[in-house]
UniProtKB/TrEMBL annotation:
Keyword hit for ATP-binding: yes
Alphabetized NCBIfam families for the sequence: PRK11914.1, YegS/Rv2252/BmrU family lipid kinase
Domain of life: Bacteria
Pfam families: DAGK_cat, YegS_C
Annotated family: Belongs to the diacylglycerol/lipid kinase family.
Ranges of residues in domain DAGKc: 14-144
Signal peptide residues on this chain, from the entry's feature table: none
Enzyme Commission designation: 2.7.1.107
Protein name as annotated: Diacylglycerol kinase
Cofactor(s) required for function per UniProt: Mg(2+)
GO MF terms, alphabetically ordered: ATP-dependent diacylglycerol kinase activity
Keywords recorded for this protein, A-Z: ATP-binding, Kinase, Lipid biosynthesis, Lipid metabolism, Magnesium, Metal-binding, Nucleotide-binding, Phospholipid biosynthesis, Phospholipid metabolism, Transferase
Length: 313
């Protein structure tokens, strides 16, 4: 877990002796099921009580998560990627049930923030045994016409070029994994254009031309890109990164820097913090944790200590 989030931790109690494993067999083939079964065997071998819960689709999986929280589950462990984590956060936010992640997705950005190893299922499962419980912030967003139904996000809310890339990625069936995202990026670069954004940050409104605006609760999105390297999920603020009217060549050359988080020194990039952000540009949608968040305009805010998570010691 990053140092800022660790510093904002509310407590460091040991993981409880009972765990609920949430699996969505429809997501990511059978990988989530295999990892969950392996983790269950490992936990049972260590004397931990395990309850494996599966949903046939995203809607049923969310219902199962809601039931686990309502029943007072101590820990809900999600076997999946950022989409599964996003689904679980909608039910876990504001509850006393802690989230644990067994990463099996393509990007695993939320797991990366928590310091959960994605390449070692046994080490990830061991966090459920010997990890510590932390409290971190979440982002919460809603369109103005539906403010009573907010959407929670753990990583990044983004719009502009990134929205178009996500939409294209979802339409593609080949290639698989990270290469599909990279292919979508290359395709959208050929159509790159700046957009007239209105960004209101803590009541201060500004109009700017940008190819993308990202609002981060945490730093990572897109499988390890540090789009908001100044984000800290323990400071009660959102980190905003706006990329100005770059050409496709400029944006392409900047991608290696985005993975390192050094793009923020580029003259076309602006970064700042805000507790509340309103984002708008005509005819554009936003995505949060890589999932649809709705059409702009959207309001987003940081909610301090909104969820408890299990992280390595």
């Amino acid at each position: 877990m990053n140092s800022g989030a660790a510093a904002a931790a509310s407590g460091a109690g040991a993981a409880p002796g009972a765990v609920t494993l949430l699996v969505n067999p429809a997501a990511g083939g059978s990988t989530g099921e295999r990892v969950a079964a392996r983790a269950a065997r490992r936990l049972l071998g260590r004397g931990v009580e395990v309850d494996v819960v599966a949903g046939r689709d995203a809607a049923e999986t969310r219902e199962r998560a809601r039931a686990c929280v309502s029943a007072g589950a101590g820990v809900l462990a999600v076997a999946g990627g950022d989409g599964m984590v996003h689904l679980a956060l909608q039910e876990l936010a504001g509850s006393s049930t802690a989230l644990a992640v067994l990463p099996t997705g393509t990007g695993n950005d939320f797991a990366r923030v928590l310091g959960i190893p994605s390449a070692n299922p046994d080490a990830a499962a061991d966090v459920l045994i010997g990890g510590v419980r932390r409290s971190i912030d979440l982002g919460r967003c809603s369109p103005p016409e539906d403010a009573d139904r907010p959407l929670w996000f753990g990583t990044v809310l983004t719009s502009g070029f990134d929205s178009l890339v996500v939409e294209r990625t979802d339409r593609m069936r080949w290639p698989r994994g990270r290469m599909r995202y990279a292919a979508a990026v290359m395709a959208e670069l050929g159509r790159l254009r700046p957009l007239p954004f209105t960004v209101e940050a803590d009541g201060h409104e500004e109009h700017l031309e940008a190819v993308l605006v990202a609002v981060g609760n945490t730093a990572f999105y897109g499988g390890g890109m540090r789009i908001c390297p100044h984000a800290d999920p323990g400071d009660g603020r959102l980190a905003v990164t706006a990329v100005g009217p770059a050409t496709s060549g400029q944006l392409l050359r900047a991608f290696p820097r985005i993975y390192r988080g050094t793009h923020t020194t580029h003259p076309l990039v602006r970064t700042f913090h805000a507790r509340r952000v309103r984002l708008h540009t005509p005819g554009m949608r936003a995505y949060a944790d890589g999932e649809p968040a709705g059409a702009l305009p959207l309001h987003a805010e940081a909610v301090p200590g909104a969820v408890e998570v299990l992280v390595p010691r």
